[in-house]
Amino acid sequence: MLLTIDIGNTTILTGVFDGKKLMEHLSLSTDREKTADEYGILLSARINAKKIKGVVISSVVPPLLETFQKMSKQYFQLSPLVVGPNIKTGLTIKYDYPQELGADRIVNAVAVHYLYGGPAIIVDFGTATTFCALSEKGEYLGGAIAPGIGVSVEALFEKTALLPRIELIKPGRIIGKRTVESMQSGLIYGFAELVDGIVRRMNKELAKELAKEAKVIATGGWANLVAPATRTIDEVDSLLTLKGLRIISEKNRRK
After folding, report:
1. CB-count exposure of residue 190 (10 Å: 0-12, 13-18, 19+)
2. Which fold has domain 92-244?
3. Hey, do 2-82 and 92-244 end up sharing a CATH topology, with the first three levels equal?
4. Phi/psi at 155 (5° precision)
5. At what angle do helices 179-206 and 149-159 cross, to 10 degrees?
6. Domain extents in the chain
7. Cα–chain center distance at 234
8. Mind listing the pLDDT tens digit for each residue in 147-169?
């Protein structure tokens, strides 16, 4: 079995694959202060370490990458495959500075290329909201980065004197009759319009070099909340990154 680990700024998502089948997945809060032992105990309580034959990690939190590498060796007796330079992905990266490209964006692009085909636009609703453009031939063309909806919720609470911290759920109407409802409306429908606007502009720009309009795949923690309010998202795949890690592991498996 394969253990996949995606370390994000807010959430750490892990999954266990038996071949191509995802057997289980677990979401943990990102805590830079936790030790390798603490994460190891959390994971080994859910996962039979003896059945794990490989570990693959993507990370956008450098301090925790070392923590999870240590955890993998101590608790699973395995040196993990880490997504980074010299890793086989099957993609052609057309980015001016590839070293600036987050591992999660590469992994998502791999998953979309092999599971959905292209051209495609990937919208990841994480700590940041990222947009990635992918050609039919598997060329990573670039993208856009905007604040995440969770970050925006916290900013409203922390930077204003009278607005409360709210639970982010879809309100029943656009025109809110209470402060909480008004904030929910502004955030969810505002982000829906942000997504639709950027996707339309990206499709317009891509039309110059691609033969057909891109399919739009959404992922990330807030995808299921925002996607229904959009007009451009075709499909939601919340476990896209884990699937991409599995594919990358297969491509880099030693014979």
Report:
1. middle
2. Nucleotidyltransferase; domain 5 (3.30.420)
3. yes
4. -65, -40
5. 140
6. 2-82, 92-244
7. 17
8. 999 888 888 888 887 777 778 88
pLDDT per position as a tens digit, 45-54: 888 888 999 9
Q: How far apart are CA 10 and CA 8, in angstroms?
A: 6
Which of 6, 104, 124, 237 is the catalytic position? 104
Q: In the numeric block, which tokens belong to residue 234?
A: 């075709």
Instruction: Please check whether the domain covering 2-82 is classified as CATH 3.30.420.40.
Output: yes
| Rounded Cα distance, 138 and 34, in Å | 37
> Is 237 in the active site?
no
pTM above 0.70, yes or no: yes
DSSP code of residue 228: G
Per residue in 52-90, pLDDT (tens digit) is 999 999 999 999 999 999 999 999 999 999 998 888 999
